[in-house]
Amino acid sequence: MGEPTAFSADQIEDFKEAFGLFDRVGDSQVAYNQVADIMRALGQNPTNGEVKKLLGDPSADDMANKRMNFDAFLPLLAKQDAVPKGTYDDYVEGLRVFDKEGNGTVLGAELRIVLGTMGEKMKEDEIDALMQGQEDDNGCVNYEAFVKHIMSV
Q1: CB under 8 Å, gap of 24 or more: what pairs does 63-68 form?
Q2: How many CB atoms lie under 10 A from the CB of residue 131?
Q3: Rounded CA gap, 88 and 94, in Å?
Q4: Dist. CA 32–CA 24, nearest whole Å
Q5: CA distance 10 to 71
Q6: Do residues 143 and 106 make contact, with C-beta atoms less than 8 angstroms apart?
Q7: Residue 86 exposure: Cα atoms within 13 Å on the Cβ side
Q8: How many CB atoms lie within 10 A of CB 140?
Q9: What is the pLDDT of residues 77-107, one digit of tens each?
């Protein structure tokens, strides 16, 4: 992991505003189980496992019941922001492995299996939403267009 990022005052103000939108109780705090969603709303893409690690590996009960304020959240966001992100080329290269014909496409069915079984496994409805409109008439997916689609979401 890299050095935690130093955010500008404007960024911190924007983060604080977004953080406040997740405060459902009105005590200027959020539940641990909301931290991943807040980070994603702020442009990060942590896995649930990464967030649990940042939070000190809390129990399921703590995830639901423990709360944190913005001052405790900001250093976690900075740590997550310092994590190197995958690039467009990284993702295309990863999918190229499944391009058996060498024509820039992968079988949609195979991609669905990979999304549902490798890494942070996706649920079927999440895969369906992600894959919507991506398969051609032959059930193939142009993986360069697919990566562009995912990175723009």
Answers
A1: 63/31, 63/32, 63/33, 64/31, 64/32, 64/33, 65/31, 65/32, 66/31, 66/32, 67/25, 67/27, 67/29, 67/30, 67/31, 67/32, 68/29, 68/30, 68/32, 68/35
A2: 16
A3: 10
A4: 13
A5: 16
A6: yes
A7: 14
A8: 20
A9: 999 998 877 888 989 999 999 999 999 999 9
